[in-house]
């Protein structure tokens, strides 16, 4: 038991105000240790500040009496609201019952609080008040509460018919005794019955009668709810969402959220409807795991299929594609605009299913149409559509990266007549297609060759000089990082002997044909990005932007939340650049000091079971072996401390064994830097 030490005025809806000396009982836990979740002696539930409350010594009898008072006050508060209990009151009553049982065991039987004698069972020989008769009155009785003021007994003249069918005299008076009785019960008052025979005079039979009546009513309500649950049609949740969306023109996700909020609020406010609302919300899981053909039950799926079919017909119109006719531009533009709106705001599950039909044939149609279309306004809309497609799923990105679409985008970027606005759209969508690190077909690199890569590296430096085109320079850097993911991570020179035994980085990709294809391609290709960087003299903006992203641990390719996650492109770029002296020399001495600071911070902060720590150890090996760290030896003592701390850890996991091996190899390869002076 708790007692208030000071007065407090509650300033929030969930806090309680109190005076000095009020008693409370803790009934739950609080996320904030400075607040306590309590119930007061008045039956109110909320949070009180911990520093305003102190413990109160109480015997087992005092605890039982206080708990009983809280239970009665909670029931009384609910009866004043018409018998409705909130979710917090339900939980509080369960907790109070548990506490009462606990203290009841600790209290000696002789000291148990006195209880009222149970009344004898009601005499129902004369008449019976059924659930139907109560329902016909328009309200349900509330359970009787101990300590409630007792109403005077009904006069004997009316008692003989008080629970039966109304007499003619009562009908003429404009009301029945049943109505009067129901109104008394509805106010939570006790009714004292007085039989005409006088055999039960002086006995209170209303409590047992009302509890039985309440039980019958609750059973009838539960049976009605179960009947309603069985009558809910399949897909009713989707129907509700479709109704809201068609009436308000908001997105499918927003409409779905509105329906969920309404159903949860109904289930919380009206506990009797909780099973029904839960049953309707449970159909969301069935919808998420639906089969491919369930898109036919969705209005968005049907509309998307119709739009794609009309676009296919436009693509197959050879006359429009072969001649410079533009009469269909408005029609196609309307189709593409509706398609874009549907992909952004429609049912995501249904749209995914439609796009994946016939091995992603709808996506193939869009790619072919993009190849054939020459009008920039329509190509611009198509690029926006492809961006929305990439945002929907990783499967769409994998299909687009394996199609001819990347080649078409690369050819368009190489075109010297391409304006800057068009380059921004193309490079943005190109980065989306490559952001998951999917392996490109080997033949595509005949187009994405040294000329194309030099164009990207040159554009990074050129476009960053002008604030109006700085965004285009950032998009080019994103493409360089994406293309660098197509090549294997290069080992630092100090650890060349570990290249054969180095385990692959955890990029979440499954072992299978994709990894096999990547390995075959790697045997035939060198890292074109590193090759061209080693030949360049001006990389000022490239290194500045890389260090900024590296310090913030940001990855421009992390555009979506799709799984599996690819490699961190910036970390891989830094490792590759410090794999050879030609690319490591690009960084200035001050830049290299910053890199050293970041590596020390990560080696200190990352836990031992984090696989990223191995990546930073590889980078440290490159910094020492290929970089200029040996000349300035920036923060040498802290570097040595990080290495010795790793060696002192227990080798209980594969990651720790790998880190031990890396640190040992670094120190063995450069004893002049790590030996004690």
TrEMBL record:
GO molecular function per UniProt: Arp2/3 complex binding
Region Disordered, annotated ranges: 109-208, 499-522
Listed Basic and acidic residues bias regions: 190-204
Record field: compositional bias (Low complexity): 127-167
An annotated GO BP: endocytosis
Record keywords, A-Z: SH3 domain
InterPro entries: SH3-like_dom_sf, SH3_domain, SPIN90/Ldb17, SPIN90/Ldb17_LRD
UniProt KW Transferase keyword: no
Top-level taxon in the UniProt lineage: Eukaryota
Domain SH3 intervals: 1-58
A Pfam family that the UniProt record links to this protein: SPIN90_LRD
Protein name: SH3 domain-containing protein
